[in-house]
Amino acid sequence: MKATHALPLARSAQRKTSAGDAAAMRWFIFLGRHRETTLVAVLLALIVATSLASPHFLNIQNARDVLLNVAIIAMLTAGMTVVMLMRHIDLSISSTVGLTAYSIGALFVAHPQMPIAVAVLAGVAMGAVAGSINGALVTFGRVPSLVATLSTLYIFRGIDYAWVHGGQINATSLPAAFQMIASGSVLGVPYLVVLALVVLAVTGYYLKHFRGGREFYAIGSNPEAANLAGIQVDRRVFKGFVISGALAGLAGVLWLARFGTVDASTAKGIELQVVAAAVVGSVAITGGIGNVWGATLGALLLGVINLSLVVLKVSPFWQLAIQGALIVLAIATDTLLARAIARWTMKKRDHGDD
Amino acid sequence: MSPSPLNLAPGTTPRLELRNARKNFGAVRALENGTLTLWPGEVHALLGENGAGKSTLVKILAGVHQPDGGELRVDGQPRQFARPSDAIDAGIAVIYQEPTLFPELSIAENIYMGRQPLDRFGRIRAETMQHAVQEMLASLGVNLQATQSVRGLSIADQQVVEIAKALSLNANVLIMDEPTAALSRPEVERLFAIAERLRAANVAILFITHRLEEVFRLAQRITIMRDGAAVHFAETHEMTHDSIVSRMVGRDLASYYPKAEVEPGEIALAVRRLTRRGVFKDISFTVRRGEIVALAGLVGAGRSEVARAIFGVDPVDSGDVQIKGKSLLLGDPAAAVRAGLALVPEDRRQQGLALDMSIAHNAALTVLKRLVHWGLISNQSERNLAQDWGRKLKLKAHSMDVPASTLSGGNQQKVVLGKWLATHPDVLIIDEPTRGIDVGAKAEVYQTLTELVKNGMAVLMISSELPEVLGMADRILVMNEGRLTADIPRAQADEARIMAAALGQSDPHSRSAA
Questions:
Q1: Are A272 and A323 in contact (CB under 8 A)?
Q2: Which pLDDT belongs to residue A31?
Q3: What's the CATH class of domain A34-313?
Q4: B147 contacts B104 by C-beta, under 8 angstroms
Q5: What is the predicted pLDDT for the residue at B491?
Q6: Can you give the pTM of this predicted structure?
Q7: Dihedral through CA B472, CA B492, CA B287, CA B254, nearest 10?
Q8: Is residue A222 within 8 angstroms of chain B, CB to CB?
Q9: Interhelix angle A60-85/A270-280, nearest 10 degrees
Q10: How far is CA B116 from CA B61, B108, B157, in A?
C-alpha cells in the first residue's frame, strides 16, 4: 500500500563536479579539518607585516612580554574550552583569578616562609572550590551556565572587594623565589611559560585521548544522546566546571607571581578576552567542536594583535574596535567555511560523486 | 498468562519481562500497566496510537525513566535500571525514532562513546576502535568510513550507525522505536534483513511501528497498548489488519473514511499554467467548493512545491491563480491569506508550529490582528480561540498554556489545523494531513475534513498514502516529475491507475488536465 515511497525519483542526471572544483573543495576540506592551519597562517602574516612596518616589533623583550601575557590567558582559555565544549560558558574566571591572586598574596604576607608548591596548590584548590560552586549551580541547581557564572562573577568579585577594602599586596611582600616563576627562565623561556605549556599539553592530551575528555565533546554535541549513551552527564559537567575553576586558580597564582602587585580589581574583565580567544581559536560556542591547540593559537593571535596595534601606534581609542572587528572577521570566515563544506558534502551525498 | 512461545525449548526463560509497570509525570499518568514479555529469537511488535504509552514503556526498558511501580526481569532476574548505562550493561540496546548521535564526532566515536577500548594508561585505543567499527560497517554492507563525521549522513545511514552501536554492545535485546518512519523502501529492506539476521542469532527484538504491513512481515507476536495499558497480546497470525486497528483505537472502524456526498459548488481555486522552471510546468486544475481534490504522486514529484507556489511562499515563473474568480497576487503569502487561502504544511515541527510557544499563542498566530484591543493582545481571547478550536477538533491537552512541543503528533496537527481554520479560509491546502500521527487522530482529521467540505470549503489534499487518497478524495490529480499526468474522478480511481500516472505512464482514460 505504501508503494509511493518505494521509488526514489531520479530526475536529474548525475552531475560530476569538474576537476578544478574538486581541487578547490579538497582545500576547503583540508582547512575545515585543520582550522588551526589558517590561524597559524594568519599569525605568521601578521608578524611579518608588522615587523616590516615597524622595526621595533621583533625583539626579545616583546616576545617575552607577549608570551608571559598569553601564557596566563591561554591557560584560562584551555579551561574555557573544556566548558564551551559542553555547550556551557564560565564567565566567573576573572573573579576567581582576582580572588585567588589576592588570597595567595595575603597568605604570603601572613606566612612568608610558605613553600611555593603549597602556594600553587592552595591557589588551585581555591579555584576548584569556586568551580565546584559553578558546577553545583549548573547541575543540581539547573541554572543556565551563563546566568550562574555571571552571578558568581559578581559574587566572587564582591567578596574580594569586601575583604580587600582598597588595600593591595605589593611585590615586596612576596618571596623572591616565588617571583622567579615569572622572571626566571630556562633557555630563555620564562618558567611561567614552560609551566603553562605543560598544563596546556596535558589538558589537550586529556581531551583528545581519554574517555572523560571525549565525553565533554559528546555532551556538547548532543546532551540527550550523551545521556542515552550511558554518560553521567551531570557528573561530567560538574567536573568540567571544576577543571575551569582550578585552572583559573592556578592562573591567579601565576598572575600574582608575574605582576607582584594585586588589589581587588585584579584581572577584571579578562573573561571576555578568554571567550574571544577560544572563539577565534575555533572552539564553537554551540559545543562539541574545538581543541586546546586551536584555543591557544586564538589566545596567541589576540595577544600578538594587541602588541601590533601598540607598536604600530594605533590610537588606543581604536584598538578595542579593531580587535572586535578582527574577532568578527575570524568567526565569519569560520562559519562561511563550515557552510561551504556542509554544502559540498550534501552535494556529494545527493549525487553520489566521489 | 503468555502463550507458549514459538519453537522454544522447554524451560527457556524470557529474555525480558515487564509486569504492571506504572509511571506518572506529575499528574499525568503516562503508563498505567506496562506489561510485555520478550523471548529470545522473536520479533515482537509493540503497537498503539501515539500517546498510548509505548514511548514511556521503551524509556523504562532503556533506563531513561524509572517506573513508579511494577516489576522488571532480565533473563529471569529482577532488575532495576537507575540510568541508561544500567540498561546497556544488561544487554538492552535501543534505536530511537530520531537518531541520537553526536554530529560533530566520527562514526567510530559515536558507536563507542562511553565505553571506548582503553590501553593500560587509560588512553583510548583509537585504532582498535576504528578497525572494529570499519569491520562492523562492512558486515552491515554499507559504504561508510569509521573516521568520517556523522554530520551530513542521511537518516538511513545514521540509523545504520545506531544499529552498529547496538551490535557492538552485543545486545541480546534490541528495541527499535519506529525505525522505518523516515526510510525509503530499499533502506527498509536493508533494515529488515539485519533484523532477521539478529533474530536468527537469538536476539529478542521489540519493534514499534505505525505501518501494519511491516508487522505482518516481520513480527511473530504482537502487544497492543491503549491509554497507557497493554490491552491485547497475540500471535501475529491470529490477527488481521482490522482487528489490530480496532484494538488500538478501542472502537469499530466502520467510519474510518467518513466520506460524505457533497454537491460541488462554484469554482473556489483555479490554477492556470503555473510554471516554475526546473520544478514544475504547466500545472492547471480547479477545486470547487465542497470538493476534496487529492494531489498524488511520488515523493519529489513537485506537489508540495506547487502548493507553496500557490500560497506565495515560493516564486513562480509564469501562470496565474484565481481564488473565487479573483486573480491572486503571487509571491505574497499575506495576500493569499487575505484572499481566503490557508496552507497546512507537510512538516509541522519545522513549518507549522512554534514548538516552544503555548497552544494558545500558536493557535492565535494567524489572526493576531483580530485579537488586538487597544493595541494589546489579550491572552484571554487567545485562550478562548484555542479552546474553541480545540473543542471542535477534539484536541487533547491539559491546558491551552502548555508548549506545543509537549503534544503528541496528532494533537500538534490539530493545533496547526485550528490555527489555519481560525482564518475562516475558503480554500484549504493541506500537505500530508496524517503523516506521523496515529490511527485515532487520523480518523478525527478525516472527520474534520469531511465537515469542512460539507460547509462549503474547497480542500486540496497532498498525500502519499494511497488508501487515504482513495478514501477521501472526490477527484485525484497525479503528478510526475513536475507535470500533471492524470485527473481521475473518484468513481474511476484505483491504486493501479494512480501508480501508473505517478510513474509517468500515459493514462488513456484520463481527461486531459483542464
A1: no
A2: 63
A3: mainly alpha
A4: no
A5: 87
A6: 0.73
A7: -10
A8: yes
A9: 80
A10: 23, 9, 22
Smallest Cα–Cα separation from A123: which of A143, A138, A142, A103? Answer: A103
Please give the pLDDT value at position B444: 82
The verdict on a CB contact (< 8 Å) between A8 and B299 is: yes
In order of A48, B1, B4, B8, the CA distances from B12 in angstroms are: 76, 15, 10, 7
Cβ-contact A37, A281 below 8 angstroms: no
Burial A177-191 (b: 16+ CB within 10 A, else e): ebbebbeeeeeeebb
Closest-CA residue to A97 (of A66, A117, A73): A73
One-letter amino acid identity for A211?
R
Which residues, at least 6 apart from B450, have a Cβ–Cβ distance to it below 8 Å? B258, B259, B260, B472
CA–CA dist A106, A99 (Å, integer): 10
Low-confidence ranges of chain B (pLDDT < 50): 1-5, 253, 510-514
Rg of chain B over Cα atoms, rounded to whole angstroms, equals 25
DSSP designation for B41 = T
Tens of pLDDT, residue by residue over B297-322, are 877 788 889 999 999 988 899 999 99
A346–chain B nearest CA distance, Å: 6
Picking from B88, B102, B107, B109 by the largest number of A CB atoms within 10 A of its own CB, the best residue to mutate is B102
DSSP track, A288-310: S---HHHHHHHHHHHHHHHHHHH
Listed in sequence order, the residues at least 6 apart from A5 whose beta carbon sits closer than 8 Å to its beta carbon are B184, B185, B299, B464
Contacts of B60 (CB under 8 A, 6+ apart): B18, B21, B23, B31, B34, B66, B67, B72, B81
Long-range (24+ apart) CB contacts under 8 A made by B72-77 are: B72/B16, B72/B17, B72/B18, B72/B19, B72/B21, B73/B14, B73/B16, B73/B17, B73/B18, B73/B19, B74/B15, B74/B16, B74/B17, B74/B173, B75/B13, B75/B15, B76/B13, B76/B14, B76/B17
Nearest CA in chain A to B189: A6
Among A residues 199-218, those touching chain B with beta carbons less than 8 Å apart? 209-211, 214-215, 217-218
Per-residue pLDDT of chain A (354 residues; tens, 9 = 90+): 333 333 333 333 334 445 566 676 666 666 666 677 778 888 888 899 889 988 888 888 888 889 999 999 999 999 999 999 999 999 999 999 999 999 999 999 999 889 999 999 999 999 999 999 999 999 999 999 999 999 999 999 999 999 988 888 888 889 988 998 988 888 888 999 999 999 999 999 999 999 999 999 999 999 989 988 889 999 999 999 999 999 999 999 999 999 988 998 899 989 999 999 998 888 988 889 999 999 999 999 999 988 888 888 888 888 888 888 877 887 787 677 767 766 666 565 555 444
How far does Cα A99 stand from its chain's mean position?
20
How much is the pLDDT for B167?
Answer: 81
Question: Could you give the CA distance from residue B145 to residue A302 in angstroms, rounded to a whole number?
Answer: 37
Is the Cβ of A306 closer than 8 Å to some Cβ of chain B?
no
DSSP reduced 3-state for B100: coil
- ipTM surpasses 0.85: no
Judged by CB atoms closer than 8 Å, whether chains meet at A4 and B467 is answered as no
Under an 8 A CB cutoff, do A288 and B104 touch? yes
What are chain B's domains? Answer: 16-101+150-217+231-249 (3.40.50.300), 267-502 (3.40.50.300)
DSSP B490: G
CB contact residues (below 8 A), chain A span 7-26, against chain B: 7-9, 11
Give the pLDDT confidence of B205-245 residue by residue, as tens digits. Answer: 999 987 788 888 889 999 999 878 888 888 888 888 878 87
Angle between helices A211-221 and A233-259 (to 10 degrees): 110
- Contact call for B100 and A222, based on CB within 8 A: yes
CB contact under 8 A, B466 and A3: yes
